Amino acid sequence: MTVHRSSNSFGDLNVSSDGTLLLGDIELTRGSIGNFDIAPATLTSGGTDDYGLYVERTLNDAGAAGGDDAFTLFGGSIIDTDTTGWDDVYLIDVYSDSDSGGFSVSADGSLEVYGNSGEVNMQLVNDDPSDADAGRLCYIEFGGALSTDPESSHSLAKIRVTHEGTGTDEKGQMVIVMNDGNDGYSPSVEALKISSAGVTTLKEFVISS
Predict the structure, then answer these.
(1) Beta-carbon contacts of residue 20 (< 8 Å; ≥ 6 apart)
(2) What pTM did the predictor assign?
(3) 90-108 confidence digits (pLDDT tens)
(4) In the chain, domain spans
(5) Among 123, 124, 156, which residue's Cα sits nearest to residue 139?
(6) What digits encode the pLDDT tens for the residues 146-190?
């Protein structure tokens, strides 16, 4: 079956006898176990902003959000009826076919970033320009929940890296803050601080060269 759309820049929509969908040069195949494979045509030349899959959704609601209103561009759920037959279950697993690098997120929340180029790095970049003290904030948060209330999520500690001082410069500082028992998502105890000069303050003790 072929559906012609004169205004469709992707070309005609074709459905083959085995159920494969062809939209122009994009092939969507349903596997024998209910999975879907998307296979765009092979790129034989480079261009600007090439990509394999791009999804765009315009949000235009000027009303004030209420309750738990949220928008998710990509959503999914694995129903764990019985996963005994799998050694590993991943929410996402993205990698290069040459094994040069990739990352994965397992169903238990474990994140792995890997590569074989001699170094592997993860960057947190704050693109909001600021010269304020504690501006350009990037942080990693560690959280949990009480055994008596699984919905009582909170922050146990944070590692915060920010700009130091108010100068137009690149000075950085690192702070580790701890939850002392009832801080919710705002740990209040500054356990360790490292200045741009390398001076380390360990709560009430200062360590310097």
Answers:
(1) 27, 28, 29, 30
(2) 0.70
(3) 999 998 877 678 999 998 8
(4) 2-39, 72-118, 138-207
(5) 124
(6) 999 888 899 999 999 999 999 999 999 999 999 999 999 999 999
